[in-house]
Amino acid sequence: MALRDTSSLHQLKSPKRDLDTQPPDSSMEEESDTRKINNSFLRDHNYATEADIISTVEFNSSGELLATGDKGGRVVVFQREQESKSQSQRRGEYNVYSTFQSHEPEFDYLKSLEIEEKINKIKWLPQQNAAYFLLSTNDKTVKLWKISERDKRPEGYNLKDEDGRIRDPSTITSLRVPVLQPMDLMVEATARRVFSNAHTYHINSISVNSDHQTYISTDDLQVNLWNLEITNRSFNIVDIKPANMEELTEVITSAEFHPQQCHTFAYSSSKGSIRLCDMRQAALCDRHCKYFEEPEDPSTRSFFSEIISSISDVKFSHNGRYLMTRDYLTVKVWDLQMENKPLETYQVHDYLRGKLCSLYENDCIFDKFECVWNGSDSVIMTGSYNNFFRMFDRNTKRDVTLEASRENSKPRAILKPRKVCIGGKRRKDEISVDSLDFSKKILHTTWHPHENIIAVAATNNLYIFQDKVN
Amino acid sequence: MSTAADMDVNMDVNMEARRILAVSISKLYASRAQRGGLRLHRSLLLSLVMRSARDIYHSSSRDSEPHSGPSPPEEPMDTTSSVEPERTVSEPQPTSPSAQAATEEPEAEYERGASGDKENLSPAKQSRKRRGKTSAAPDFLPSKRARLEPGEERYAACCRSGHPESLTSLSLNRVISAF
Questions:
Q1: What CA–CA distance (Å, rounded) separates A430 from B78?
Q2: What is the pTM of this model?
Q3: How far apart are CA A178 and CA A31, in angstroms?
């Protein structure tokens, strides 16, 4: 598959505030007052550029919309242009559809801790009517947002004039019925639900159930099950907190519902294992029904073995038969029927194995890369450093390294495969390991559900690549 | 019997371990100041690295200096070095896993016996931590030096006599008990 860089390079910049946000449910009013007071206090630091760093990307289930969340708590939604018959060569491109401030920085008085507004994950709900719904979460609070279009406005009120001023009653001599008049399209985002106060630790993932009624939110030690309609109650279905915190050896790093079975979910751990749980077995799913772990290779043991075996992302395949996990150096595909070892292991950037100490010092070893399936589950993709991202074709066993960078690819040009030179003589076009830029990392990527369109987040830039059109 | 070559390799490993320990400690301090509070996952990984580094450091130090330290032989040194993480007071804030893991089964028994007392020994220290002191300045600074527990003193004495550069081990000591 050859990928063409389309013109959709979106560089998100401040200002942070956007205009479409409506206040959340009235039950949260008290809290929003304190939040306003806190905002100025917490703006001491210059977050201007840092706030634009994209922290999550997600296509919706039809692929029509693409949502991004950033460190500043904003969500930007892109919509694909309708393809016009006259321009069949030009595939639909993605343009900004809606921007809103999803989360604000908060302060937990009890623990004297700031709660970051960074959006950790966004998940779309399946579309049921004209409006779009998505869940977005920061470290502590999940919010359900409704994104809807308004293209008509009622005009001709009796009691107030066009500017909204109350009319003098003595001037009203007749009754009229307000009429809906067309107006410029406005896309509004409103917070419909706020799910808060359920997590002691930092939320790392959310996953919507195939029943479209519930979802799970996961932090380091607990998984909570929510009903989308109910915000004041959630059920704890996994709790791995030890009685004595000093005995803690493992945390949960991600969890996801099975795409078809509404009673099954999987969660990954910092020790490199995945547990599959069935909610029908017990109310508290502490006992897994499947446990996936590959025994450690003792020859590769180092100071950092535990860190690099920690799983940063787990994703079910679309057909529900496989699981994919990402740890620091590899991506593994697991067959749900085989627990003792993965079906396939792909090396993402094994040349980093000898550099773990430096990567530990510059904190890169803690980076959490995501991984993603294509629509047919035949290709998997994940990010790396130097704005490289990797794709692995599971059938042909071929892999490719591509780069998301304006300097190195012209718009509409076909992306050139990149190669990292490991040792010995460096060929032209190859890049040596020591020249890699570790500040340019691709942690978040997403793949269109049906087509070969991918979105790749490189720091504060969003790249959208499409398959070559013949 | 260690040859000169063995000693060299040992020193390398020792230095590497010490460097990793120092880096880890500075990361621990830095993580206290970061926005969003201490992250459990990151703290856990840091403590695992620190534990490996510390174990390698001590084992390679013992190998390279067979006459190190006064009377305490290997065993008490092992247990004392493992004891003080046990003594880490379990913070109400969910951010401080001890470096101690469940893997060291035989030692665990001893520790729990020893540390059980130690936990009860200093309720004042416990309650001080409970008042959210983690976000305040760390209390390991020399000017606010807390009274050393008997185990800590013995351990610190071993380190000081055995190794000229005792600062790292002493700092680790303090960090873990403060953490």
A1: 50
A2: 0.75
A3: 37
Min distance B71 CA to chain A CA atoms (Å):
30
Asked if the C-beta of A191 comes within 8 angstroms of chain B's C-beta atoms, the answer is: no
CB < 8 Å to A303, chain B: 17, 20, 49, 52-53, 56
Residue A270: list chain B partners with CB under 8 A: 41, 44-45
Helix axes B74-86, B167-178, angle to 10 degrees: 40
Which one, of A393, A389, A359, A355, lies nearest residue A374 by Cα? Answer: A393
Residue where the block lists tokens 């593994």? A332
Q: Tokens for A137?
A: 């979460």
The pair of three-digit structure tokens given for residue A47, joined into one six-digit string: 């977050």
| Dist. CA A301–CA A305, nearest whole Å | 6
Instruction: Tell me whether residue A406 is exposed, middle or buried, using C-beta atoms within 10 angstroms of its C-beta: 0 to 12, 13 to 18, 19 or more.
Output: middle
Q: Which residues of A touch B16 (CB under 8 A)?
A: 357
Tell me the two tokens of residue A155: 């005009």
Tell me the Cα Rg of chain A. 24
- Whether A269 and A253 have beta carbons less than 8 Å apart is answered as yes
A64 neighbors A132 (Cβ within 8 angstroms): no
Q: Note whether B35 contacts A116, CB cutoff 8 Å.
A: yes
Give the tens place of pLDDT for each residue, A305-318.
999 999 999 999 99
Nearest alpha carbon to residue A58 among A256, A345, A311, A348:
A256
Give the β-pairing of A252-257 and A264-269: antiparallel
**Average of pLDDT values for A255-272?**
97
Q: How confident is the model at residue A457 (pLDDT cuts 50, 70, 90)?
A: very high
Backbone φ, ψ for residue A438 (5° rounding):
-80, -5
**Reduced to 3 states, what is the DSSP secondary structure of residue A75?**
strand
What gap in Å lies between CA A403 and CA A108, rounded to an integer? 40
Residue of chain B whose alpha carbon sits nearest to that of A111 = B132
Residues near A428 by beta carbon (within 8 Å), at least 6 away in sequence: none
- Is the Cβ–Cβ distance between A57 and A445 less than 8 Å? yes
In this prediction, does ipTM exceed 0.85? Answer: no
Q: Count Cβ neighbours within 10 Å for each residue of A95-113 and write b for 16 or more, e otherwise.
A: eebbbbbbbbbbbeeebeb
Q: How many CA atoms lie within 13 A of A194 on its CB side?
A: 19
